[in-house]
Amino acid sequence: MPLPHVSDGTLPAHVEEQRTRVSIHEDAPRMTATVEAAGAYFASGVDNSFSMERFRRDLRIEVQQLDEEEIVFDVIGIDAAIANAFRRILLSEVPAMAIDKVFILNNTSMTEDEVLAHRLGLIPIRADPRLFRERVGDEDPDEHHVIAFRLEIKCTRGNKDDPGSSEMVNSRVLSSHLQWIPQGDQEERFREREIKPVHDDILIAKLRPGQEIVLEAWCEKGIGKTHSKWSPVATASYRLLPEIRCSRVRDHFIFSVESTGILPPEELFCEAAKVLMQKAADLAQLLKDAVLGQGGGADE
């Protein structure tokens, strides 16, 4: 709450610099701590208490670069803790679709079944996770939970009449060989944007003549906290806005989010914001329940 006995004063220049800048020196950055106490600048007549109105007024997001795979934007007016929360949520709590279960019917390649399954799980799948639901417990899978792919490939010699020929067909198993098998109404729902791997040239395995792989893979919805294959970003980082005087603007963060292709990069930050809002609501509810619980105990 604002301090009623503190007027709207002005901080001295050197104190204002300490409040808003991180200073860079030869040995290490300085003035890195954020001053949160409401009465920290009481002597200068400045109210340092948090104001939602001021926060809304100062908060800005400015997009600097945007393409199909990456977005670079400035977030101005937030603390480093909030910026880091966004970074961590982007990495581990924004849902994505990834191959989770692999049913191998035949694998005569040199790649072990376990390695093959792990490689398939790391292939980014172009499917909007917001259109699917996570399976809970022993819930039966259906078209709203699972995306099915089939891989059936066999390596043969290119010239069957010449046994000594080194030419081979299907010697490299690529992500483009994964064939989507629509379940239920998926074909109609995703008619305009067919579900498939983001990249067609990801190497899965190598085959020699006579070797083959036959399998079925199921994609399910999950988050990167469970396994990195469900992380929808390749990288998510931020840095403080630099100044020529080698300082940093404390509340101006330059975000760089590179999508794996599962979701457009401009939508990933919005999904991260939704998760953060839900976390804040859950924390507020826990605090409210704790206060009410203590009050109830006092009355009794």
TrEMBL record:
One Gene Ontology term of the molecular function aspect: DNA-directed RNA polymerase activity
Name of one Pfam family that matches: RNA_pol_L
Compartments reported by the entry: Nucleus
GO cellular component term, pick one: RNA polymerase III complex
InterPro entries, per database record: DNA-dir_RNA_pol_30-40kDasu_CS (IPR001514), DNA-dir_RNA_pol_insert (IPR011262), DNA-dir_RNA_pol_RpoA/D/Rpb3 (IPR011263), RBP11-like (IPR036603), RNAP_Rpo3/Rpb3/RPAC1 (IPR022842), RNAPI/III_AC40 (IPR033901), RNApol_insert_sf (IPR036643), Rpo3/RPB3_RNA_Pol_subunit (IPR050518)
Positions of the DNA-directed RNA polymerase RpoA/D/Rpb3-type domain: 70-286
Example GO biological process: DNA-templated transcription
Family: Belongs to the archaeal Rpo3/eukaryotic RPB3 RNA polymerase subunit family.
Protein name: DNA-directed RNA polymerases I and III subunit RPAC1
Lineage, opening ranks: Eukaryota, Haptista, Haptophyta, Prymnesiophyceae, Isochrysidales
